[in-house]
Design goal:
The protein is an alpha+beta fold. Helices cover about 35% and strands about 15% of the residues. Among the domains are: about 140 residues, no CATH class; about 100 residues, no CATH class. Strands 4, 8, 9, 10, 11 and 12 form a six-stranded antiparallel β-sheet that branches. Strands 1-15-19 form a three-stranded antiparallel β-sheet, with no helix packed on it. It has a two-stranded antiparallel ribbon with strand order 2-18. The radius of gyration is 25 Å and the shape is globular. Belongs to the SELO family.
Length: about 575
């Protein structure tokens, strides 16, 4: 069995099976019917109408509910599903559109299923689960909602946007007391679909599933993915925005977040003058997600803004520490909880390049990786503009001062993260220079971002002192061709001498653990209907139906894997031709 060593702990269990389902008619056509609480051992009100309910080993008493959202906000009074401008509400009730063809369960995250949703992993083998995660069955307690929001896209106000292909199917509070909002992506049209078809394709869905789970295990705040299903429904996409439209397969991801509210959620209300509703939404967010802020505090919105500023700076610094470029940093894609959401044309930087742009439609490079911190400041300023109608003059002045401190928050966290990547202990006034010096060398040589730090965590100080770089450290060998490399090494070794109580062995172990390097084996189980994947840069192209089992197991294999920080290239390496 082949084994690969990968530069992150992707501790998810990805399972593909060929479970089919029959007719996928929505379970409950009247959303009001679902509002009644389910008593212990009670039958759902629609049972006996020919629909199958969750069995005793399934989700018969699962606590999914939309009540907290529906009871807290006005709901769009128009129940017909057509594209329109919506006002004076936060959500529209709209049901997912089931696929017309057979649906296959492609992947599940065992951690999400068992440790967030409190379900047994065996539930994945039931047809009811398949129908639920594919939008074909609305379970008791769930009222599917599409969220109304706006946003600034590529620097300009875009007006009403909203969930154009996503349905928030309920809120679940698990045994740990964590509140999670479940959302289907690719589940059909909503009043916010604009010119879209409401669908997602397998290619982009695989990317979101894998990356959101990988980011979690890298320690970066993110939404999670529970499952991925694929159909044979035809979806047409212009993948590279060059006029070449191709047929792809429709897919749906069940994804979770503590909240899906974003900066654009507040912007649309401020732009529409719906200040009472904006205040109501803010109070809800603070009460549910910011426990350190008192809901009756007159400065609660100021404290909320201050928290979002510091946490957004932290998030973007974390992105930079792993070479992650989001690709579409619009205000409608920036979470108010400062987590990574809406994985679209993202990418992981391979060669270090501050101008790396993963989004082929970003012609001007607005969202290049080196500009993400600046874009974060732009987005936070738009959040402040949305909040200003609710602030008094004193609070506005203080909020502006808070925003001015964003840069310091970011650079402080950035330095902390890269100091750890270099195995440095304590603070030194020259650390910023040392880090910047290294990054400049890497930029000049287009050094591999991940492998440079990885090999620094493995090479000994004696080898560095002698500038003896073993052949297997290919990234450092290339970097060593820079005329200033020896000067940087001297500075680095001098700084390591200031690590009190440290040894070279401890340094290397600490760096390896901090960088998240673990060894994993993989195996692929093929079936007669196995398709194949091929990779091109940051894209995966599905060709035929896939039934693949990726089972990552921790091992002690020491064989090196020749980098490429793009997660999807790693996955494609497992299943490529």
């Amino acid at each position: 069995m082949p084994r690969l060593r990968v530069p992150w702990a992707v501790a998810c269990f990805v399972w593909a099976c060929g479970v089919g389902c029959g007719d996928l008619d929505p379970l409950c056509p009247s959303w009001g019917l679902c509002r009644a609480p389910l008593a212990l051992n009670a039958s759902p009100p629609w049972q006996g109408c020919g629909e199958t309910w969750w069995g005793a080993a399934g989700l018969s008493l699962w606590g999914l509910s939309s009540d907290s959202l529906i009871d807290s906000f006005p709901i769009d009074p128009i129940q017909e599903n057509y594209v329109r401008n919506v006002r004076n509400c936060i959500f529209s009730v709209v049901y997912p559109t089931p696929f017309k063809s057979k649906v296959l369960l492609v992947a599940v995250s065992e951690d999400v299923i068992e440790n967030i949703l409190d379900l047994h992993i065996s539930v994945q083998g039931t047809s009811d689960f398949l129908q639920f995660v594919s939008g074909g069955k609305v379970i008791f307690g769930s009222v599917p909602l599409a969220h109304r929001y706006g946003g600034h896209q590529f620097g300009s106000w875009a007006g009403q946007l909203g969930d154009g292909r996503a349905h928030l199917i309920g809120v679940y509070t698990n045994r740990h007391g964590e509140r999670w909002e479940l959302q289907l992506k690719g589940s059909g049209k909503t009043p916010y679909s604009r010119n879209g078809d409401g669908r997602a394709v397998l290619r982009s869905s695989v990317r979101e599933f894998l990356c959101s789970e990988a980011m979690h295990y890298l320690g970066i705040p993110t939404s999670r993915a529970a499952s991925l299903v694929v159909s044979d429904d035809e979806v047409w996409r212009d993948q590279f925005y060059n006029g070449n439209i191709k047929k792809e397969r429709g897919a749906i991801v069940l994804r979770l977040a503590k909240s899906w509210f974003r900066i654009g959620s507040l912007e649309i209300l401020a732009h529409s003058g719906e200040l009472d509703l904006q205040r109501r939404l803010l109070d809800f967010i603070i009460q549910e997600h910011f426990p350190l802020i008192a809901v009756n505090d007159s400065d609660r919105y100021l404290e909320f803004f201050s928290t979002v500023v510091s946490e957004t700076a932290n998030l973007i610094a974390l992105w930079m520490s792993v070479g992650f470029a989001h690709g579409v940093c619009n205000t409608d894609n920036f979470s108010l909880l400062s987590i990574t959401i809406d994985y679209g044309p993202f990418g992981f930087m391979d060669s270090y390049d501050p101008n790396f742009v993963p989004n082929t439609s970003d012609d001007e490079g607005r969202y290049k990786i080196g500009n993400q911190a600046n874009v974060g400041l732009f987005n936070l300023n738009k959040l402040l503009q949305a909040l200003k109608p609710l602030l008094d003059p004193r609070q506005k002045q203080l909020a502006s001062q808070v925003l001015e401190g964003y840069g310091q928050h970011y650079y402080t966290r950035f330095t902390e993260l890269f100091r750890a990547k270099l195995g440095l202990l304590g603070d030194d006034e020259n650390d910023n220079y040392l880090i910047g010096f290294l990054l400049k060398l890497m930029e000049d040589r287009r050094a591999d971002f991940t492998m440079t730090f990885r090999e620094l965590s493995e090479i000994t100080e004696d080898q560095l002192k002698e500038l003896h770089i073993p052949e297997e450290f290919w990234a450092l060998q290339d970097l060593g061709k820079h005329k200033l490399f020896s000067e940087w090494v001297s500075m680095y070794l001098l700084r390591l001498e200031h690590n009190k109580g440290d040894t070279d062995v401890k340094r290397r172990k600490r760096m390896t653990e901090k960088l998240g390097y673990s060894e994993y084996s993989f195996q692929i189980r093929r079936t007669p209907s196995l398709g194949r994947f091929s990779a091109n840069q940051h894209h995966i192209y599905p060709h035929t139906s896939e039934r693949i089992l990726w089972h990552w197991r921790q091992t002690k294999q020491e064989k090196d894997f020749p980098s490429r920080t793009t997660l999807l290239l790693l996955v494609s390496a497992l299943v490529a031709d």
